[in-house]
Amino acid sequence: MIESITISSIATFGTTPEQVNALSLFNFFFGSNGTGKTTLSRVIADETKFPMCSVIWKAGTKLQPLVYNHDFVERNFNQSVELKGVFTLGEKQVDTLTKITTTKSELDALTAKIETLTKGLQGEDGNSGKKGELATLEAGLKDKCWAQKQKHDAKLQGAFEGYRNSSEKFKGKIFQELAANKATLLSLAE
């Protein structure tokens, strides 16, 4: 049981220490807003946070105080704004709900990033973007390969059997040869 409380230099209390004495087993503090009720309850809940205040316990036996004030409600009861119908009770559950909210925010950020990257890859219409650029470059490369094939067709007649009638197949063969051929490259004249 608390015998007395000394409080000073906090919130509405000045530097001159004020004491609440002759406390009983049950005590009620009431008053107008700003008179120090919550401050007094915070000192009782954890006096170590307030070095200019003290709580004297009967026979020096400190008990575990349980203070029901606004701080208690904030720590132990939570109605989720984002998850309608979800209500948590207790500090651990409030922490869990906070983690859920944080994780949901992270998920939303990752989803937005995926959408942005997908738009960059596929474009707004699904056919442009980086994939569209790649298709355009591949078509240009195919045309250049085919133009070289046409230019040197008479000299390379036996070299590309099966690939001479399709520009797409010819481009594929060029890439296949580029990857597989380890021989020293010679000029056309050589």
Order of helices and strands: EEHEHEEHHH
Fraction of residues in β-strands? 5-15%
Q: Count structural domains.
A: 3
What kind of oligomer do you see?
single chain
What would you call the shape?
A: rod-shaped
Cα(first) to Cα(last) distance is 105 Å
The percent of residues in helical segments reads 40-55%
Mean pLDDT: 84
Give the helix/strand class: mainly alpha
Blueprint (SSEs and pairs):
Layout: E1 2-7, E2 18-20, H1 37-45, E3 54-57, H2 70-76, E4 77-79, E5 87-89, H3 91-122, H4 129-151, H5 167-180
Antiparallel strand pairs: 1-2, 1-3, 4-5
Helix pairs in contact: 3-4, 4-5
Tell me about this structure.
This protein has 190 residues and is mainly alpha-helical. The chain has three domains: 2-67, no CATH class; 75-122, no CATH class; 137-180, no CATH class. It is built from five helices and five strands. It has helices spanning 37-45, 70-76, 91-122, 129-151, 167-180; strands at residues 2-7, 18-20, 54-57, 77-79, 87-89. Strands 2-1-3 form a three-stranded antiparallel β-sheet, covered by helices on one side. A two-stranded antiparallel ribbon has the order 4-5. Strand 4 (77-79) and strand 5 (87-89) form a beta hairpin. The longest helix has 32 residues, at 91-122. The protein is rod-shaped, with a radius of gyration of 40 Å. The mean pLDDT is 84.
